[in-house]
Design brief:
11 helices
Amino acid sequence: MPQLRESDSVMPIKNVIFDVGKVLFNWDLRHLFRKHIMDTEELEFFVTHVVTPEWHFQHDAGRPLADMVVERIAEFPEYADLIRLYSTHFNETIPGPVEHMPELVAKLVQNNVPLYAITNFGAEFWDGFVVTQPIFDHFGGIIVSGAEKLLKPDPAIYQLALSRFKLNAPQCIFIDDLPANVAAAKKLGMAGHIFTDAGTLEQKLHAIGLL
């Protein structure tokens, strides 16, 4: 008996739910701070001990940015100006879209595929970023972790998206660069794709009939 393909399922996939960071847009704290810290060793110390991804993720989880900055400056007063820079120039940590992803999103839009996103992103930073990116005008809805105080891979953030946007899980494919986030979506009945590059994703979308 031939195996059932995703495209042969009773409820065909018709909705695409994207992660944002490192799927649609590149992100790395170094993009901002290498402009201000010329010494390579000091830069690596700064992004691994002072303004670190782990510390940044507190804002993704909903912690107020002002509280984080005051606390960090008290801990590292010698870096006060750079820590403040993180809060005022965050968009410079996002150098641009992931290669070929704008073109792939455009193909989905042309095919009238409904697009959504679930992103671990601080609410204050998101408000300053989303208005600079017209690509999100094509999205039917976006769940932002910092606004909801829920982080992937908590099942509740996926359930919130399904409920708010009135989606059926088996009709959705969730795309994220982190395997744990994709696994959580699949446990709720969505199809999943671990993102590596636009070309591989495009092949996947062709296979399930969205392109």
